[in-house]
Design goal:
The complex is a heterodimer of chains A (314) and B (435). Helices cover 73% and strands 0% of the residues of chain A. By secondary structure, chain A is mostly helical. In chain B, the strands form 3 sheets. A 5-stranded mixed beta sheet of chain B has the order 2-1-3-11-4, with helices on both faces. A 5-stranded mixed beta sheet of chain B has the order 6-7-8-5-9. The chains are: A mainly alpha (314), B alpha/beta (435). Chain A: Its main location: membrane.
């Protein structure tokens, strides 16, 4: 009789353990290995989620020595009718939309150029990827200095090209400019990520397809729209998914850059949620807020993944 | 013989001390007075046999770090110099040891400390005689200015010509703004200078502490009647609206460019780097500023928060409490007893702390002992503090948002900002069951 993997494992283990393992079924062995992971997953992911949902129906405050009271849907009602929270959502949507649009356009363009394999392309790839390797807190701090009206290089660069007085505008202090200041930094930092994904997509297209198109005398423009774009699209959509989820929960970079200000114009939902949960200590209310955000992201991501699968299967 | 007896007694006391010697940890913010306290506490170590460790956290993280520690029942701190607003939460949530019995047993009288300080730093509920802290560090918001610039003949002449009066320390809010506007974008020693650095910080408590300096003097009150939680007509009174409008005007006319998120450190930086003619900050920083080789000494002078309709200053400062989760409470109480002594309080002042013990501040020569001592006394007699409710953080963040939205982000009117603030606070007090 051929030796099975279970026998081999049993032979390699001490006799009493081996005896016990020999008596186990494949399913039992599988559970033995997977079980600890499942227990960890339940303890770290699922239980807190269920607990959060439970807390969201109470007025619990983690910093108080008093019993939580059941308040039904009051927290949800308050959040959904709170004008300030909708403004926060609006700020988040603005941030998400523009960062994704810019990162996809610039990232794809850079990948397209790098894919040409010109002399020094490997070097430029490394240079472009550098910002992505930095810590968001460091990047935030670094750009805060660049944006300073009196000493910041960014203002001097803008002034050089426009002739404006560098002290006359403050990127992170102006209500109109502050949202753009974080879009610029996020784009600078994360476009390389989109570029790398697009590059992987571009390099996965077999040369033979382009050669066939050349035989059919298809123009470069037509090749781009009928071969390159459709074949890179699933990769692009994947990049959008990653960046969308990441930017929806963006926190550290924005806190370091603007702290949510001026006023509340750059206060994204993640910052707002943190204030509610760990500064105001409205734990029940913040739990309801987190549940709403979770359902929103989960719902949108599910629809998006379905669309992505359809594109992939085409 | 007498010497031998004394030697034996000292040895016995020392052995007794050694037998119960503890390592106490005192938690506070990381700033100049904390360094002075380390120096001062060496005497306690020598006298008691206990050793002292210190946990100092930078101001921007101080509340987060320490309140998390208290909320989790942590034993890091045996003694905590907590912010005045924390006293309600510290008492109601059981974080602080109630000190009444201890004070009585050790004959520590709260009558020996300035009334305003005892009220603000020690008591909960307000107006009661329940003590949860010993006043440790008196503090209030004050102002300082470049005396050397004020005294320049060409600057004096220009101001006289513009305003028809000599340039001098402002005594009213209107004068303050007038002087700040005068210095804004003025060339002095070949550099562009600005009027004033004020607090505009959004994240923690900055803009509230700064704006209330203007609001209080205009007549802002938290309640129509103390303890009533009735805010309509007080928080949004015409005087309060005028105060908030004033602060916005001061921000717009007279601060350095991009000065949208500034608190203590930024104010000090702006002053020390020669950007501004005047600055607001806490008295706690004044000894360090006076000693600064570049902008201190003869170049600097100080003034109390100017009045508009009433004399008022924003309260800073803290009381020292024994943390209820500490298992070294006896030793911690020993520290409090030692700290409350008049001679220790006197040394505290000499090292750079701000005592509020009457033996020190009402003592001969106190006002002349430092260029800011008189202003400190005046400020402490007119202080007003933020809510000290257990829900103070929620109340504070609401005010931070409403003020920053109006003053810095230029959204809505002062009236709308204060009306919305009442809505926010009403919701909080309803949740708290106080309305």
């Amino acid at each position: 009789m051929a030796e099975t993997p279970i026998d081999r494992v049993a032979r390699a283990t001490p006799p009493d353990v081996a005896r016990r393992i020999r008596g186990l079924s494949d399913r039992a062995i599988a559970w033995l290995f997977v079980g600890p992971s499942i227990v960890l997953l339940l303890a770290i992911n699922i239980f807190p989620l269920i607990w959060t949902v439970r807390l969201s129906f109470t007025n619990f405050r983690a910093n108080r020595n008093r019993e939580a009271e059941w308040v039904g849907l009051r927290n949800y009602e308050r959040i959904l009718t709170d004008e300030d929270i909708w403004l926060t959502m609006q700020a988040t949507a603005h941030f998400l939309f523009w960062t994704i649009v810019l990162q996809v356009l610039i990232g794809f363009a850079l990948a397209y150029l790098i894919n040409k394999n010109f002399k020094g392309s490997a070097f430029w790839t490394t240079v472009i990827v550098l910002p992505m390797m930095l810590s968001p807190a460091v990047v935030g701090n670094f750009w805060t200095f660049l944006y300073q009206p009196q000493i910041g290089l960014f203002n001097y660069a803008v002034a050089f090209f426009t002739g404006a007085d560098p002290s006359s505008f403050s990127m992170i202090g102006s209500v109109d400019l502050a949202p753009w200041s974080i879009v610029i930094v996020d784009t600078w930092m994360w476009t390389p990520f989109v570029m790398l994904i697009c590059l992987a997509g571009l390099r996965s297209i077999p040369d033979s397809i382009y050669e066939a198109a050349e035989c059919d005398r298809a123009s470069k423009w037509r090749q781009f729209w009928t071969i390159t774009v459709p074949m890179v699209l699933p990769f692009l959509m994947l990049a959008v998914l990653f960046r969308g989820i990441e930017n929806f929960k963006m926190f550290d970079l924005v806190v370091q850059l603007t702290g949510g200000g001026p006023g509340s114009v750059t206060e994204l939902t993640s910052i707002n949620l943190k204030r509610e949960a760990f500064e105001k200590w409205r734990t029940g209310y913040a739990s309801a807020y987190a549940v709403i955000l979770f359902v929103t992201v989960f719902g949108l991501a599910s629809i998006y993944v379905k669309a992505l699968n359809k594109v992939k299967d085409r | 013989m007498k010497r031998a007896l004394l030697g034996c007694t000292a040895a016995i006391v020392s052995m007794a001390g050694a037998a119960k010697a503890e390592d106490l940890t005192l938690c506070w913010a990381a700033w100049d007075p904390a360094n002075a306290l380390v120096e001062l506490s060496k005497d306690f170590e020598t006298e008691s046999g206990h050793s002292m460790s210190f946990e100092f956290v930078p101001w921007p993280n101080f509340a987060d770090r320490m309140l998390n520690e208290l909320n989790s029942g942590g034993q890091l701190c045996d003694l905590l110099i907590g912010d005045s607003q924390w006293i309600g939460g510290g008492a109601e949530n059981g974080h602080y040891v109630k000190l009444n019995d201890f004070f009585e047993a050790e004959a520590i009288s709260m009558d020996d400390f300035a009334d305003a300080a005892v009220y603000a730093y020690s008591t909960w509920p307000k107006g009661s005689e329940n003590y949860y802290a010993l006043p440790a560090m008196g503090d209030a918001l004050g102002w300082f200015y470049r005396k050397d610039w004020f005294e320049m003949p060409e600057v004096q002449e220009a101001f006289q010509a513009e305003h028809g009066r000599p340039l001098a320390e402002p005594t009213t809010m209107a004068e303050l703004k007038e002087i700040a506007a005068f210095f804004q974008n003025r060339e002095i020693d070949g550099q562009t200078r600005y009027g004033a650095s004020i607090f505009t910080e959004r994240g923690s408590e900055g803009i509230t502490m700064g704006a209330t300096a203007a609001l209080y003097t205009h007549g802002f009150k938290y309640e129509t009647e103390p303890g009533s939680y009735q805010m309509d007509g007080a928080v949004n009174s015409p005087e309060a609206v005028a105060g908030l409008e004033f602060y916005k005007e001061l921000y717009e006319c007279c601060t350095p460019p991009g000065y949208t998120d500034a608190y203590m450190e930024q104010s000090l930086d702006a002053f020390k780097s020669g950007q501004v003619a005047m600055a607001m900050n806490w008295f706690a920083f004044f000894p360090g500023l006076y000693a600064d080789p570049d902008v201190g000494g003869e170049k600097i002078d100080f003034f109390v928060n100017p009045s508009a309709n009433v004399a008022a200053s924003t309260l800073g400062g803290q009381g020292i409490s024994v943390v209820s989760y500490s298992d070294k409470q006896d030793a911690a109480l020993e520290y409090i007893k030692w700290f409350a002594q008049p001679d220790v309080q006197q040394k505290w002042w000499e090292l750079g702390g701000y005592p509020v013990h009457t033996a020190v501040i009402e003592g001969d020569g106190f006002e002349a002992s430092a260029p800011f001592a008189g202003d400190f006394l005046m400020a402490m007699n007119q202080v007003q503090d933020f809510w000290q409710e257990p829900a103070y953080a929620e109340l504070l963040l609401a005010m931070q948002k409403r003020l920053h939205d109006y003053v810095v982000a230029d959204q809505g009117t002062a009236q709308e900002a204060l009306d919305k603030l009442i809505e926010d606070w009403t919701e909080t007090f309803e949740d708290e069951g106080k309305l």
